[in-house]
Amino acid sequence: MFVVEFAVAAALPFDSPGGPATSAPPAGSAPGQPSVATAPLLIGDREIRLVSLGGPAADRLLARIAANIGAAIDRVEAFWGIDWSRDISVLAAGSDEQFRAAAGGGGPTQWADIAAVTVADRIDPAHRLVLGQRIVFAPGAATMSDSALRIVLTHELFHYASRADTALDAPRWLTEGVADFVARPPAPVDPRAAAASSGPQPSDSELDTPGPQRSLAYDRAWWFARFVADSFGAPRLRAYYLAVCGVARLDPVSAGRDVLGIDPAGLRARWQHWLAAGA
User: Distance (Å, rounded) from C-alpha 115 to C-alpha 13?
Assistant: First the structure.
């Protein structure tokens, strides 16, 4: 089963106006086929394979990724632990068409504000088996600031690390919220946005629709993950993720009682208070 997780550049803006740049595939390179493969990068006991799908811009992006991936690994390990794949594949697409193909198809609008995706060819969470997993960066990621690139890289690396322990039907508001918790530095909550965020967690439709709605949906998911970590501790957030998103797939209400030790009314009240306080 082909599976995609993605980071949103609407929440983590590209630094050039107009979003991701479009570039043509390098001459003689078929879409989706690597034109350049660098030697594996060793960080601790992990081997990172960096593959350019075409052009100097993709090569430069991979050089920046190589400079930042050690810090990204440290952040993921600090939250998730070290028991995940020792082999990491990162690809830089040479064109928007290559990126859309890697992301599973769809029209240009669907991926207009997407910086990177994490994809896999086969996943069997019951046996913690993941085959063909790789992180693919869009060409427009080359225009991001170093701080934004680090956030996207860390976000996708969390998906990479947690994939073997995440059910295929895990709620995306939690998988994406926790990925952003690991990747993004804390920031004050916008009171106007918070006022619209005290209800249900964002739907898949909100997370999938390009534009400001998607950005706010990701922020809402991120804020909830931050709230759980602030209120109950990061280890409890990890345990809550495994309870709700793992193979056993407890519903959030049961996980709240079993993992966080709180009933829905109490959790909602504390969540609304956290939002009102502006984090």
Answer: 9
3-state secondary structure the chain: CCEEEEEECCCCCCCCCCCCCCCCCCCCCCCCCCCEECCCEEECCEEEEEEECCCHHHHHHHHHHHHHHHHHHHHHHHHHCCCCCCEEEEEECCCHHHHHHHCCCCCHHHHCCEEEEEEECEEEHHHCEEECCEEEECHHHHHCCHHHHHHHHHHHHHHHHHHHHCCCCCCHHHHHHHHHHHHCCCCCCCHHHHHCCCCCCCCHHHHHCCCHHHHHHHHHHHHHHHHHHHHHCHHHHHHHHHHHHCCCCCCHHHHHHHHHCCCHHHHHHHHHHHHHHCC
State the amino acid at position 267 in one-letter form: L
Please tell me the predicted confidence (pLDDT) of residue 24.
29
Backbone angle region of 105, left / alpha / beta, with phi > 0 → left and psi within -120 to 50 → alpha: left
191 pLDDT exceeds 80? no
Q: What is the pLDDT of residues 69-115, one digit of tens each?
A: 999 999 999 999 999 999 999 999 999 998 988 877 777 777 778 89
Per-domain boundaries in the chain: 40-165, 167-278
**β pairing state of 46-52 and 129-131:** unpaired
pLDDT grade for 190, boundaries at 50, 70 and 90:
confident
**Sole residue written with tokens 């209400």:** 253
